[in-house]
Amino acid sequence: MNERARDLQLLHDMVLIRRFEEKCAELYSATKIRGFLHLYIGEEAVAVGVMSALGPDDNVVATYREHGHALARGLSPGSVMAEMYGMVEGCSRGRGGSMHLFDKAARFYGGNAIVGGGLPLAVGLALADDLRGRQAVTCCFFGEGAVAEGEFHESMNLAALWRLPVLFCCENNLYAMGTALDRSESETDLTLKAASYEMAAWPVDGMDAEAVAGAAQRATESIRGGGGPVFLELRTYRFRAHSMYDPELYRDKAEVEQWKRHDPIATLVERRSVTDDELRSIEEDVAAAVDAAVAFAEAGTPEPVEELTRFVYSDSSTVGRP
Amino acid sequence: MKTTYREAIRAAMREALERDERVFLMGEDVGRYGGCFAVSKGLLDEFGPDRIRDTPLSESAFVGAGIGASLGGMRPIVEIMTVNFSLLALDQIMNNAATLLHMSGGQCSVPLVIRMTTGGGRQLAAQHSHSLEGWYAHIPGIRIITPATLDDARGMLWTALEDPDPVLMFEHGGLYNAEGELADDAGPVDIDRAAIRRAGADVSIVTYGGTLRTCLAAAEVLAADGVDAEVIDLRTLRPLDSTAILDSVVRTHRAVIVDEGWRSGSLSAEISARIMEEAFYDLDAPVQRVCSAEVPMPYAKQLEEAALPQVADVVAAVRATTGGG
User: Fold this and answer.
1) Domain boundaries, chain A
2) What is the ipTM of this complex?
3) Which of B202, B217, B254, B299 meets the CB 3.0–4.6 Å disulfide criterion with B228?
4) Strands B2-4, B52-54: parallel, antiparallel or unpaired by DSSP?
5) Domain A3-294 maps to which CATH number in 3.40.50.970, 3.60.15.10, 3.90.960.10, 3.40.50.1970?
6) Does the predicted TM-score (pTM) go above 0.90?
7) pLDDT tens digits for B170-190?
8) Interchain pair B105, A92: CB under 8 A
9) Do A120 and B92 touch (CB under 8 A)?
10) What is the pLDDT of residues B5-37, one digit of tens each?
């Protein structure tokens, strides 16, 4: 695939995430989707760029703001939407919801809603690959808020100590919910923190899908070559509120508008001189995919309440009534 | 053959490492040091550093890594030095190990065994001596096992590793040096059912883990007085073998629960409630409980002894139910 073709694919995937999530917000207002809903809009370049460097044997561990990661990893929009509808056809059979999208076949291990809690899992998945002699990379997404958690430091140390194939992707969108980075970290240079674990670490413009894809490619090549874990600080910004409940009292509208000038979709359209026809074609394709996802979810099956206690233990377990 | 509880667990780990290449052990000082209670002594030389992995003092990361490795197809045994330290990994145990299968709609099972030491009696004071297995038994999605005998120390681990879901194995620190006879062909045992360790007709003493010996000793004291006590070893705290408890209580009409955990909000309370719910009309006396005193475990010997269930406490509780108090 030449570079332009690759970039058109990145653009397509970003537009899919954008339109899919705009539809999610609408469906949330219509009460079709409930619970917490964290939108990724503005950060799409990170997911599509990083995923472009991963193959089917690689593992992904994501956060609770993971619709973008799931779609970029190739989960079907229908299975993701059906999950948010709480249907059996959802990628987690309706037991996870927006924050817990899973697809074991795609090696997509959540959907983790404890900040920092996914990092040890990623270390373990990488350890399993290492012990079994598999050449896979485990890619772990987390926000900059996770850097304040002990699990971040423990996991970075363990991955570096054991030289495990982990790609740590820190999505630095500057706010841990409503707490700005400089209000929570004594050292705000996250790359410097990561490098202190004797790990290759570098910052990336997370609003630029090409830059992210290039960095992720370089990082995964290094990891696959036995170079140990890599940390990427992906500098990005979410255009929407933290969740649907957030009145956004902690940041200026002017700041949001300033970042919107670096919209990752517009940036790529401009740089690659994407034609109106090309863009229209992408939009039409995406609109059809989103419509189909909604129709799939609407036609979904609510799991019978009799199945409530299934999957607490494996079906093959001898545990009966707990 | 003559062996100890410690050696029986080591033999179980050795067998697991030999039988299944997906099995590995990790934890603090399990390798070069030989395990802080010497349970894994010698295994590093036999199996090498990839399979006997010393970890940093990062309970959350290495327990979480065990969960991740099990998702990746391995069968990890994760050792945590003591139950008090396991609280540093509670996020991983509760929010990941216990929930991943359900949260993923049945896709992500977590076949993992976490071993840890529990209990008091060794003057280790308030950060190394508690019995929190009853807390863990509150959590759906995990299985809790408490080997109290040499056969169970030898046999529960393999069965736990074959379980598709996470198993927490609590080893009472006071049992490691316990010596006894173990059959040469001792092997895997079930981890579903309670066991009657002493049959009796007059009262059911329900216990597990470190207090099994206390209860058996109390039963001998009572026997001398003509009270025939049955002693039930729960073995598995979650899922509780209610049937075994109720069958016994229906026969003896009296129950005493002995639990080294604290009384309030405890496993003993759960068992008592189940007896009340399902065998109320079979009871001839109120259920009695013998638990640890509700204090952080003190260091001084006489204080610690006063805090823990002793033979005399069990005897007194039984007499209270038989009208012989």
Assistant:
1) 3-294
2) 0.96
3) B202
4) unpaired
5) 3.40.50.970
6) yes
7) 999 999 999 999 999 999 999
8) yes
9) yes
10) 999 999 999 999 999 999 999 999 999 999 999
